[in-house]
Amino acid sequence: MKTLVHLSDLHFGRTDARVVAALMPLVNKLLPDVVVVSGDLTQRARPSQFRQARRFLDALPRPQVVVPGNHDVPLYNVFQRFLQPLNKYRRFIGEELEPFYADTEIAVAGINTARSMTFKGGRINEQQMQRLYERFAPLDRSLMKIVVTHHPFDLPDGHESARVVGRAEAAIRMFRQCGANIVLSGHLHASHVGSSERRYPLDGYALKIIQAGTATSTRSRGEINSFNVIRVADATVGVDRWTWQ
Fold first, then answer.
1. Would you call 40 helix, strand, or coil by DSSP?
2. Tens digits of per-residue pLDDT, 110-131?
3. Which residues, in sequence order, are CB contacts of 21 under 8 Å at separation 6+?
4. Closest CA to 230 of 20, 78, 36, 12
5. Residues 9, 24: Cα–Cα separation, whole Å
6. Residue 41's pLDDT band (boundaries 50, 70, 90)?
7. Beta bridge partners of 194
8. What pLDDT, on a 0 to 100 scale, did the predictor assign at position 39?
9. Widest pairwise Cα distance in the chain
10. Are residues 32 and 23 in contact, defined by beta-carbon separation less than 8 angstroms?
């Protein structure tokens, strides 16, 4: 069995210090095989906020699969937003925007959906789909193949006005071709577990869609701070939602 801790929407620069202090030892106590962070590590992509995020990540177990979110792209600095959108992310968090981890039971691949041209929305392009195919397709079919993005592929109840990630349907078709089983996302600050077949019916292909709420931000949007613990054993996937009290 493999255990993944799925954190999202940390938003350093606007966090609850009590939650941050409680979360770090708890994640370590859970002994995860992989820690996943699905974007928005900062509130406004400032160096001080990235430094806080870096210290937080350094206190957690490894390996880690971390992808950027739209808040990790500068908002007000137009030059940086369009010409150096993720320079500070690369400097403080990591050069690899689409990290990959694999062992004998699971494979976890990040996809960067953050874009300079949109303030909130995200997108997946053909090159990213091809890269994912090249990573997943050669692997044994027995591995649980997990995709990590910031922007969602499905919308929980109450979020009908939001948008799924751009080119979602094409990406789902590629996920089917390369045998992806699960996608982990954030962005909405809402917890959700569902199946792709409701929104993207593809001849019985059912990708498990798992959304995480915000782990540490005060921008709760009506949902308490939370994160997911995902346990994978053979073809079985269990999801526990941990909430702050």
1. coil
2. 999 997 655 567 899 999 999 9
3. none
4. 36
5. 15
6. very high
7. 209
8. 95
9. 48
10. no
Q: How far is CA 170 from CA 103, 105, 163, 177, 238, in A?
A: 27, 27, 15, 11, 27
9, two tokens: 């929407």
> What pLDDT is recorded for position 81?
46
Q: Is 172 exposed, middle or buried (0-12, 13-18, 19+ CB in 10 A)?
A: buried
**Beta bridge partner(s), residue 106:** 144
Give the C-alpha separation, 12 to 54, whole Å: 10
Q: What is the pLDDT of residues 71-91, one digit of tens each?
A: 999 765 544 544 456 889 999
What are the helix (H) ranges across 74-162? 78-83, 87-92, 126-136
pLDDT of 85 reads 64
pTM for the structure as a whole: 0.94
State yes or no: pLDDT of 204 exceeds 90.
Answer: no
Kindly tell me the burial class for residue 242, based on how many C-beta atoms sit within 10 Å of its own C-beta (0-12, 13-18, 19 or more). Answer: middle
Whole-number Å distance between alpha carbons of 98 and 128: 9
| Residue 120: both structure tokens together | 């909130």
User: What pLDDT is attached to residue 121?
Assistant: 76
Q: Rounded CA gap, 11 and 111, in Å? A: 19
The sheet carrying 34-38 orders its strands as 64-67, 34-38, 2-7, 226-233, 236-243
In this predicted structure, what is the pLDDT of residue 143? 95
Judged by DSSP in three states, 87 sits in: helix
